[in-house]
Amino acid sequence: MTRHSKNNTANPIFTYHERKNVKDFNTQRQRLGADSMRRCEQCWLCLSTAEKPVSTSHGYVYCKECILKCFEKQMDEYKREHERYVKLQQIDHMRKVEKLEELQESKKRQLIDTGVYGISGIKKSKGEGKESTVKDSSFWVAGVSGNSKGDETSTSLPEPPKKILRCPITGKPLKIKELVDIHPDLSENTDNGDPIWICSVSQRPIGHKEVMLNRSTGRLVLRRYIEVCNDMDTKYIKLIPGGTAFSAHNNVIAKKYREALL
């Protein structure tokens, strides 16, 4: 065997090792560390340290300004949808009026035809009866069925828009009065100078640990320091962490597929 056949360019296919070294195509995987995870004190919308932080009943932390701006956009969207719905209602009402007028005109013509031309009206009614029987027997034709998609008269109005504010993350209904103000204890002893939230009991940094928010006081306490009680859901809110940076607890592998450029 010559030396040339042992080079990478000699094989017609990629080996497993060669395929892993190529970073231009196929599924790329990267493990996310603690720096890639959202911290407890960061807002879910702007991803920066929350200013005047508030929490929903489901444990999502927002800046008060961010969540109020989000609610304002939702109200603007509701106004646009409501105006569009009112226009559709007017158009639908005009169509119904036109159809009613056409129906009345057709009945008047039938009365005139049967009154003036009695024999021709009888013959015409017989012919219409035959056509109706043919249409009834041909139920598979799109234009014959009343519930068919081709029937333009069967179009109905969409549902009216609902004036409901929703959480931007979960999409569940949310009211402004349900927001709970957070009053965290801060620690300035950090490398980058940004304040971090600490537990009100142990004075330890929260980081990515499980933390509970007291509804009445707005203080944060690590889950390990709270005893399990019957009214725990009414007293505390479990904040949703961005990740624990530990592979056994979260899926911290990011995947991205790239097609081969040929």
From TrEMBL:
One of its GO terms (molecular function) is ubiquitin protein ligase activity. Keywords: Nucleus. It comes from Babesia bovis. InterPro entries: NOSIP, Znf-NOSIP, Znf_RING/FYVE/PHD. Belongs to the NOSIP family. This is Nitric oxide synthase-interacting protein zinc-finger domain-containing protein. GO terms for cellular component: nucleus. It is found in: Nucleus. Residues 4-71 form the Nitric oxide synthase-interacting protein zinc-finger domain. The keyword Transit peptide does not apply.
